[in-house]
Structure formats: structure tokens, C-alpha cells
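fyi for ur records
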Amino acid sequence: MARSAGYWQRQWVKAASVVYTVLCCMRVIVLSWFGRISQAQADAAMRGWAQVIIRLSQIRWRVHGEAPDFTNGRRYMLMCNHSSHYDIPMSLVAVPGSVRMLAKKELYKIPFFGRAIRACGNPAIDRENRQQAKRDLDKAKALMEQGIVLWMSPEGTRSPDGQLQSLKRGGFLLAAETEAIIVPVVIKGVHKVLPAGTRELNLGQEVDVFIGQPLDSRDYPGRAYRQLMQQVETQMRELLD
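which gave:
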């Protein structure tokens, strides 16, 4: 059963999570000094980090639905609801394949963490600089052509109560530009691990990961991407309910 952690237990889990994250980042950075990190090395580093972070909070999770074959030569994007700091670790342990986070450029500025996620091939799109945005887009395309699955949150910001917020169009424009297949993913219950606006930590929380039906952006050309947004939002709300 899920239970609220006591003060010292809460401090230990948080400290252990931070220390382990720093150690993982340092390992990745050291590996990068000896050359480019391979896709397999990056997969192992990110998935291994996620597994430990999930275990520290004793999250009990189940997957519903099946992911498509990410090795069939198409480009794929996971569009996931965002209600917790555990969304990305949960996605990494629950979804197969080489998953990379479509990061905010601000994350690159975080000491150790920013350098490590860059070394592992987590791209960012700088929409404020048009020339840089084009280079970032080309990099994202190249990554997906290598079998990388891009993870992003179409809500843009974290939901405080686990309910789905309005979706932003940026990710759908990227999907259209890269002719990607979108796979809706909903993680339910994870917002209760670290409830927003509190200092609580709930251990042993049950979390369900729902994988929706893939949607091909090529079926929604031009401004029809708005219909694609609606289809993804409808699926995500149905899975969440």
C-alpha cells in the first residue's frame, strides 16, 4: 500500500536520488571525454538511472497497451502527459526502445546534468533563434532516423493535479516537419508520488502507464495538424479517464 514517508525517510530518498543522478552524470561526462558515447551506452546509462530513481521511491507500476516497432525505419515521437518529475524516469523504464527527451534549452545550463543529457543525445529546439532552430530540427530528424524515439510533453508545463492541460502546437509542428508517427502515452497516478505544493513523498504508489494508438502525421498535411492535435488530446483524455 502507498504510504507517506516520514521526515528522515523523505530526506534520505531525495538525497539518494540527487547523489545517484550526479554520479550518473559524471560517469557519462567522463565517457564523453574518450569520444562520442554510443547509442547503446546512452540507452544503458539513461535506463539504468531511471530504474534506480523509480526503485528509491518504491513505485509499483504496470504497462497497458503495446508500443509499435520503433525499428521499422519510421520516425517516432512519444507525447506524454506531464504531472510529475517522475514522468521521464517512468517513460524510460516502461517504454522500449532508445528514448530521448526533447529538452528545454535551459536544461543544458544545469551543471553536470546539462552536459550529461547533451552527451546522451537529448536534443533541444531553440525556437527563438531561427537559424539555430533549423540546425536543431535537422539534428532531431537525424536522431529519429537512427532509431531514436523523441519524448516530449505537449502540455508544456506540469499539471498540479494530474489532469490533462491544453496541448501546445509546437510538438505537432515538429511531428509534421519530420513526418513522425506520434504515440500518445498517459502516466496515471504518478503525480501522487510528489504532490504539487507540498513537501510530501508517498512511497509504494501505484502507477499505470497507458500506451495509445499511433497516429501518422503524414495523414494530417498542412494546417490539418490541428486535427492531429485533437486526435492526440482525445486519446490522452480517454486513457486518463
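Strands lie at 3-4, 60-64, 76-80, 98-101, 148-152, 181-188, 202-203, 206-211, 215-216. thats all i got for now
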